[in-house]
Amino acid sequence: MGADCIFCSIVRGEAPATKVWEDELALAFADAFPLERGHLLVVPKVHVENIYALDPELGAHLFRLTVRLAAALKTELEPDGMNLFQANELAGGQEVFHFHLHILPRWKERAPFRIIPNRTRSPYDELERLFAPVRARMAGVGPRA
Ligand SMILES: [Zn+2]
Fold it and tell me: Could you read off the pLDDT of 86-102 as tens digits, one per residue?
């Protein structure tokens, strides 16, 4: 799986990358096609395709690292704002199928950030019907499984 994966190649040191942090579990490096100045990617060293395959403890490690990197970016590059972004599967816009978190500094002289410009209010009974089975599944498996 990892043989032709660009992020696995970066982890192995075979493909070039501007590394910002490395530990036994994770790597953070500059996105080679940055959306904004300071755009970083945080990846697990092990090949994990997407969030559904991600061990929650490894996810916690990646997010702790992301919090520290966001603080360092804020201090050193002084962006006006910051986004975290994480894509799963083609329909979610995932392009590299090795789990990654984007840390995306934002500057106010650029267009204001929008994901979807038009939003409409959902009735609470509809939301209740939609999420009842998700709530029940979470209660059944608990926070770790
Ligand atoms: Zn990989």
Answer: 999 999 999 999 999 99
